[in-house]
Structure formats: C-alpha cells, structure tokens
C-alpha cells in the first residue's frame, strides 16, 4: 500500500532549503531553461565568488520551504525549471553576476527575488544589479564621514584659535588698565611727605625752645656768684 507521507529525503531537502533561506540576505529566482550542465556549473562558480550559492530546485519542495520560512510571496514565481541564488553577502554583486550571466546565456531568465522582507519583481531585481556594490557604497560613506570629520576638526581648531585670540587680547588689555589706575596713589605722596615734614618741624621746634630757658638758667648761677663776690669785697673794704 503506497504511503502518502513524504519520504525522508524530501523532508531533509525541504529542511535544507529552509535553512538556506533563513541564512540568506536575499534570494534571486531564475529560470534556467535551455542551459547546459556546463553553463550552469560556470554560473554557479561565478556566483560562489561573491558568497552566493546557485542551486537548481524542484518547485514542489521549494514551495514547501518558502512557506515554512515565512516567504510564501515567492510561491507564484516557482514555475518552470527553477534555480535559486541564495545570497549570503552583497545582493547587488549577486544580481550583477546573474544579469551578466543572462547576457552571456540568453536562455537564463531572472524572474525576481526577495530582500529585506520585500518581494522583488524581475524589474526590481535587474534594477538592483544597476546599483553600486556594497564595497563601493561603504567606501563612499567612509570617505564622506572622513570629510565631515575633517570639517568638524577644522571648525574646532578654528574656534579654539579664535578663543585663544580673544583671550590674548583680553590679557593685553589688562596691564593697560592697571597702569592707568597706578598713578592715583602717587598723587597722595606729596601730601604724605608734607605731613611728615610738618610733624618733624613740630617735634624739632619745642626742642629749641626748651634749650633756650635751660641756657638762661645756666647763666643765672654765674651772675649770683659774681654778686656774692662783689658783696664780700665791699665788706672787706669797709672793715679796713
């Protein structure tokens, strides 16, 4: 009696496809009708250089896998001989490789894809190939950031230089103000000196006045002695 349950190999294949979908940054679906094994191998190798795995899939198994992975939007694209590019890296570079291969092998058709939670039509997938690669974009962003950082650094240096200039001007101004205020105390010096001289004169004057009476007092005893001598002399003469 035939069993309706899928065999083990199909289950494993669906699980493998789902795991690849989960790991991928983007999916690109193609129809490879008319391609030879050699041409598919060449395409697989060119995509592998950018971190993309190109695999021929059975539509029935891939439908189960996209449903299990939550990207059922891709199911309508799984018609005809299908091959999927599981992009683990730069989606732009992978799209470029598929488009270039389609130019080389006209029977290869890019049907669409899925990236960042959005379904890509065939036109969207081809437009993706016309964008700049991640490396180029990162290089431009890095250059832009470097330029902005250089501008910011220049502005900072300019502001710092301006501040230092203002500070130096302020420092040069401070001594001038101090010099202008310095003569004020000098105006009071003559008054102070005059006061000192007056004080000195006042102290010296009493000294001279004090010396004069002292001298007169010193002269008075001498005069008294002379008068006593004269009196004694007169007495002596009278006795005789």
SSE layout and pairing:
Elements: H1 8-23, E1 26-31, H2 37-48, E2 52-57, H3 59-69, E3 82-87, H4 91-104, E4 109-115, E5 118-120, H5 122-129, H6 134-181, H7 183-239
Antiparallel strand pairs: 1-3, 1-4, 2-3, 4-5
Distance between the termini: 204 Å
Q: What is the SS-derived class?
A: alpha+beta
Indicate the percent of residues in helices.
Answer: 55-70%
Oligomer: single chain
- Helix and strand element order: HEHEHEHEEHHH
- Count of helical segments? 7
> Which ranges are low-confidence, i.e. pLDDT below 50, for 5 or more consecutive residues?
186-226, 228-240
Beta-strand content bin: 5-15%
Largest sheet report: 5 strands, antiparallel
Kindly identify the CATH topology of the largest domain.
Answer: Alpha-Beta Plaits
Q: How is the largest sheet built, in terms of strand order?
A: 2-3-1-4-5
Number of domains: 3
Number of strands: 5
The CATH class of the largest domain: Alpha Beta
* CATH level-4 homologous superfamily of the largest domain: Ribosomal protein L10, N-terminal RNA-binding domain
How confident is the prediction overall: mean pLDDT?
Answer: 74
């Amino acid at each position: 009696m035939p069993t309706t349950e899928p065999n083990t190999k199909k289950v494993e294949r669906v699980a493998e496809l789902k795991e690849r979908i989960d790991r991928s940054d983007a999916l690109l679906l193609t129809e490879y009708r008319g391609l030879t094994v050699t041409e598919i191998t060449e395409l697989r190798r060119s995509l592998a250089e950018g971190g993309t795995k190109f695999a021929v899939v059975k539509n029935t198994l891939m439908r189960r896998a996209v449903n299990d992975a939550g990207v059922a939007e891709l199911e309508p694209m799984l018609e005809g001989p299908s091959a999927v590019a599981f992009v683990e890296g730069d989606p732009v570079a992978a799209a470029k490789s598929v488009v270039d291969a389609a130019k080389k092998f006209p029977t290869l058709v890019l049907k669409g894809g899925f990236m960042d939670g959005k379904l890509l039509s065939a036109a969207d997938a081809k437009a993706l190939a016309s964008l700049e690669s991640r490396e180029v974009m990162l290089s431009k962003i890095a250059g832009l950031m470097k330029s902005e950082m250089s501008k910011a650094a220049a502005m900072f240096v300019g502001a710092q230089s301006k501040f230092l200039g203002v500070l130096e001007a302020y420092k040069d101004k401070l001594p001038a103000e101090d010099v202008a205020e310095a003569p004020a105390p000098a105006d009071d010096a003559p008054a102070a000196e005059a006061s000192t001289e007056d004080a000195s004169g006042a102290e010296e004057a009493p000294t001279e006045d004090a010396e004069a009476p002292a001298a007169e007092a010193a002269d008075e005893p001498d005069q008294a002695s002379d008068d006593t001598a004269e009196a004694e002399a007169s007495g002596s003469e009278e006795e005789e």
